[in-house]
C-alpha cells in the first residue's frame, strides 16, 4: 500500500476538479418495492416479515419526488439500476409497461439535468433465470446479453455511464462462498464458475454497449477493500493481505482487462489481519472485522485512510468514479463526520494524481439492506416506512453545501475537530 504524503495545513476550501460529479446511488430492489418476479423476492418470503423488501421505499411510484429532493440538495449526478425481472418476468417475454416505466424514470432524471449512471445488474435475477441455475449456468450470459440488447436501444438516450454489473466479487462471496444470499450455496467450484460467467457477461456486454450506444463509457462497480496487517512480522498475515487483495480487489479486473472505460469503486471495508491461524485463511475477511475501532451500525470499521489507499492503489490511468460509499448510522452527526473525513481522503488522492471524477454517496434515501432488512440507515434522507415520508437529514444539507462549493469548506473541517453537531455547523456562515 502507498505511503500517505503529508498535506500542508491551510484554511481554504479543499476544491475538487471542475466538472466533478456529486451524486447518490441506489439500486432497484432496495428502493422500488413490489419486485415480485425476482429470486430475492421469493427467497425473502421464507424470512421473517422484517427481512422482506415488501413495498421498500415505494420508489417505483415516488421517483419524481425523490429526484426533486436530490436536485434540491444540489446533486448533479445519480446512480440507479433497472430490474431485469420486471422487464423480462418470463423467459423471452417482455413487459412493455415496465420498459415504459423505466423510460419515464430516466427521462425524469434528464429533465432535472442529472448525469445518469445506470447499473444493468445489481444482485437480483429474474426468478426464471435463477431456476435455470443463475450465474452458475453459462447460458445466463446469453440471457443477460439478450436483455441488454432489448433494453438499451429503448433507454440509451437517457444514460451517460453504463455499469454492467454491481460488485461481482461481493455477490460471489455472499451467495456462493459464505452462502448468506440466495441461492445460499457454499461451493468453491460454484464460486469459480459464477466468477467466470460474470466476467464473460461483463466483457460481452461491454462490446455490445459500445455498438449500441456510440461511445458512452462502460465499466462495472467493484467493492474495493483495504487490507492491513498491524503486526508486520507475521508471514501468515502478510500473505493473507496479499492474497485477499488479489482475490477480492484485483482478480475481476484481470479477468476483464481492456473491457473497462472507467473504474467504478465502492469503498466500505477495512480489514485488519490480527493473529491469524492457518484455519482462518479460507474465511479471512469474515474473521477480520475488528470492533475495537470505530464502527458503523453494521459493525464495519470507519477507516477514511483506506479510501486514499484504494484510490491511489488503483490509479492506473483510467478515470475513476466512487460509485458507492456510505455509512449505516442512526446518528447523523456521525454521517457528517464520515462524509467530511472520507471526502478529505478523496481530495488527497486526487492531489497525488488519482483521476477521480465523481462521488456517489450510498444512499440518497434509507432502503432495504439485503439480508439485514430495513434497520441499517444509510440515507442522507430518512424514510418513514409507515408513511413513506421522506425527511431530510442534516448530513444531506452538509453534502449539499460541499457540492455548492465543489469541495469541502473550511468550517466543515473545523466541525471535525470540535465535534459540534451538524445543525450548529449548518447555522455558521
Ligand atoms: C451494495 C449495496 C449495499 C451497500 C451497503 C454495496 O455493497 O452495492 O447494494 O446496500 O453496499 O451494504
TrEMBL record:
Gene3D superfamilies reported for this sequence: Glycosidases
Magnesium found in the keyword field: no
Sequence similarity: Belongs to the glycosyl hydrolase 1 family.
Naturally occurring in which organism (per UniProt): Candidatus Daviesbacteria bacterium RIFCSPLOWO2_01_FULL_39_12
GO molecular function, one term: beta-glucosidase activity
Annotated GO biological process: carbohydrate metabolic process
Keyword Hydrolase: yes
Pfam families in the cross-refs: Glyco_hydro_1 (PF00232)
Database matches in InterPro entries: GH, GH_1_N_CS, Glyco_hydro_1
Keywords, comma-separated and alphabetical: Glycosidase, Hydrolase
Name of the protein: Beta-glucosidase
Residues in the signal sequence: none
Amino acid at each position: 500500500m502507498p505511503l500517505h504524503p503529508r498535506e500542508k495545513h491551510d484554511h481554504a476550501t479543499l476544491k475538487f476538479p471542475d466538472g466533478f460529479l456529486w451524486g447518490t446511488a441506489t439500486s432497484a430492489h432496495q428502493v422500488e418495492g413490489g419486485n415480485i418476479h425476482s429470486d430475492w423476492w421469493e427467497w425473502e418470503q421464507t424470512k421473517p416479515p422484517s427481512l422482506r423488501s415488501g413495498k421498500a421505499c415505494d420508489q417505483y411510484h415516488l421517483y419524481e419526488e425523490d429526484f426533486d429532493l436530490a436536485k434540491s440538495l444540489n446533486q448533479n449526478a445519480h446512480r440507479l439500476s433497472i430490474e431485469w425481472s420486471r422487464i423480462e418476468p418470463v423467459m423471452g417475454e417482455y413487459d412493455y409497461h415496465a420498459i415504459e416505466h423505466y423510460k419515464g424514470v430516466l427521462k425524469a432524471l434528464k429533465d432535472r439535468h442529472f448525469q445518469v449512471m445506470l447499473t444493468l445488474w445489481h444482485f437480483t435475477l429474474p426468478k426464471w433465470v435463477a431456476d435455470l441455475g443463475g450465474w452458475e449456468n453459462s447460458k445466463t450470459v446469453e440471457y443477460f446479453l439478450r436483455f441488454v440488447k432489448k433494453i438499451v436501444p429503448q433507454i440509451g438516450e437517457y444514460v451517460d455511464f453504463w455499469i454492467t454489473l454491481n460488485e461481482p466479487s461481493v455477490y460471489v462471496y455472499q451467495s456462493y462462498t459464505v452462502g448468506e444470499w440466495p441461492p445460499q450455496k457454499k461451493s468453491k467450484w460454484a464460486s469459480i464458475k459464477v466468477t467466470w460467467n460474470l466476467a464473460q457477461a461483463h466483457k460481452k456486454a461491454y462490446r455490445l454497449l459500445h455498438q449500441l450506444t456510440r461511445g458512452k463509457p462502460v465499466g462495472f462497480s467493484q467493492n474495493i477493500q483495504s487490507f492491513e496487517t498491524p503486526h508486520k512480522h507475521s508471514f501468515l498475515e502478510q500473505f493473507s493481505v496479499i492474497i485477499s487483495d488479489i482475490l477480492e480487489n484485483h482478480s475481476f479486473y484481470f479477468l476483464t482487462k481492456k473491457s473497462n472505460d472507467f473504474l467504478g469503486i465502492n469503498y466500505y471495508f477495512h480489514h485488519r489481519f490480527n493473529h491469524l491461524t492457518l484455519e482462518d485463511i479460507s474465511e479471512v475477511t469474515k474473521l477480520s472485522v475488528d470492533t475495537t475501532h470505530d464502527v458503523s451500525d453494521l459493525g464495519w470499521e470507519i477507516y477514511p485512510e483506506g479510501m486514499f489507499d484504494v484510490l491511489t492503489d488503483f490509479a492506473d490511468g483510467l478515470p475513476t468514479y466512487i460509485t458507492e460509499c456510505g455509512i449505516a448510522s442512526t446518528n447523523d452527526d456521525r454521517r457528517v463526520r464520515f462524509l467530511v473525513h472520507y471526502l478529505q481522503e478523496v481530495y488527497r488522492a486526487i492531489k497525488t494524481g488519482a483521476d477521480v471524477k465523481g462521488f456517489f454517496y450510498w444512499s440518497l434515501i434509507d432502503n432495504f439492506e439485503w439480508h439485514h432488512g430495513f434497520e441499517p440507515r444509510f440515507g442522507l434522507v430518512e424514510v418513514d416506512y409507515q408513511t413513506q415520508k421522506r425527511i431530510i437529514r442534516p448530513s444531506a444539507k452538509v453534502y449539499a453545501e460541499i457540492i455548492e462549493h465543489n469541495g469541502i469548506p473550511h468550517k466543515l473541517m473545523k466541525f471535525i475537530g470540535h465535534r459540534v453537531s451538524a445543525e450548529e455547523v449548518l447555522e455558521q456562515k
